[in-house]
């Protein structure tokens, strides 16, 4: 079988997908790794990893939002009574 693809498109071969997923993890890009793993044959067998990775991504997004809110929200002056 011959596969024709654009030179700038990534290879769909499982070994290449795994290599890209590992590189993405090494670079801290869990979302890219998830995308690669999702398109691999037998992706269902990695459900435990993909589930943990999705939770990690969601937690990281939540932390970014908390940090953004903390930085963007002006500090309120302390209220003193007395």
Walkthrough of the structure:
The radius of gyration is 21 Å and the shape is elongated. The protein has helices at 14-26, 30-38, 47-72. The protein is mainly alpha-helical. Helix content is 59%, strand content 0%. The longest helix is centred in the last third of the chain and has 26 residues, at 47-72.
Question: Given the structure, what is the number of helices?
Answer: 3
Mass-distribution shape = elongated
The string of secondary-structure elements, in order, is HHH
Number of strands: 0
**Helicity range:** 55-70%
Largest sheet: none
Q: Uncertain spans, ≥5 residues at pLDDT below 50?
A: none
The tally of structural domains comes to 1
Distance separating the two termini: 84 Å
Can you describe this structure in just a few lines?
With 82 residues, the protein is mainly alpha-helical.
Topology:
Elements: H1 14-26, H2 30-38, H3 47-72
Short key terms for the protein model shown above:
82 residues, mainly alpha
């Amino acid at each position: 079988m011959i596969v024709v693809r654009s030179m700038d498109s990534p290879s769909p071969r499982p070994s290449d997908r795994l290599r890209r997923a590992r590189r993405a993890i090494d670079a801290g890009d869990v979302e890219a790794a998830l995308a690669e793993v999702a398109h691999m044959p037998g992706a269902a067998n990695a459900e435990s990893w993909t589930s943990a990775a999705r939770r990690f991504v969601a937690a990281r997004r939540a932390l970014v939002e908390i940090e953004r809110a903390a930085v963007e929200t002006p500090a309120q002056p302390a209220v003193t009574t007395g």
